[in-house]
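Input record (one chain):
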Amino acid sequence: MGFSFLNKKVKVKIGFLISYDYKYIYDALKIVYDYADEIVLAIDVNRQTWAGKKYVFDESFFESIKSVDPKNKISFYEDDFYVAGMTPMELDTRERNMLSEKMGPNCWQLQIDADEYFLNFGEVYEFLQTNRFLVYRPDINPVNIRANWITLFKKTQNGFLYIDNEENFPFATNLIGKYNFARDMGGKHNDEVLANFTALHHSWAREPEEIQQKINNWSHKDDFDGVEFFKFWTTVDETNYQDIEDFHPIYKGAWLRLKFIACIDIHDFIKKFNAVTLPPKKTKLQRKYFDAYKKVTGKFWHK
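The corresponding structure, as predicted from the sequence alone:
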């Protein structure tokens, strides 16, 4: 049996969950579009959140997406992603698994949120192709790849307050439908690699009404006191951010301190952040994956 297929590039499929913050998807798409073979946008058919609340959605969104899809890579997956009686986190996980099934096998599956912007996606793509052999035997080599998060916390008059505390998140896998807590995987599917890639998370740097909408509808809405956290968020600014410590609303120790970059907009922030940040070292997979390749092919892996 030959293994010439391992010399060919594997497909990279990217799924985005579309909800009330759909306006952020355009910047995220620009970053990944040229590298993706397929992009799937999942949206609730009834325009409901995981909390069961209707949100305002401009239906011209579909035509707008077509205008930024010259190669016809983008498709829409509409389904009923809200189920009464399930928690927002259960529904988050359920939707991600449904999207995963929709994207199918024999590819790298990436799930990226609409407000996550990779700073070095070309390197992500190179890494996925270099380790493409993992796609063909996920039963032997189950893996969930994580990247670093830089979380934007607030837009001020002069720039962005942000969090850079080595927080990370899962975004790529060779498995189908194995999520058990949002994008996380557990049990026998918890073989994870923290890669030296970075994504900017627009998360909290929004208008006050958007923050309230997020607090009341996202998958963690039942995990903390949203009213108190919103009050806290409104008080943070350029004059007091250096006095704030350990302030994540759910996970103690996740957000230790805030930093600030003076900038005009998100693009200017990325440019200046990259200018003051050392480029990460290239990620190398653990030896066990290359041993697993030998079990599959009888050969040692070479790029």
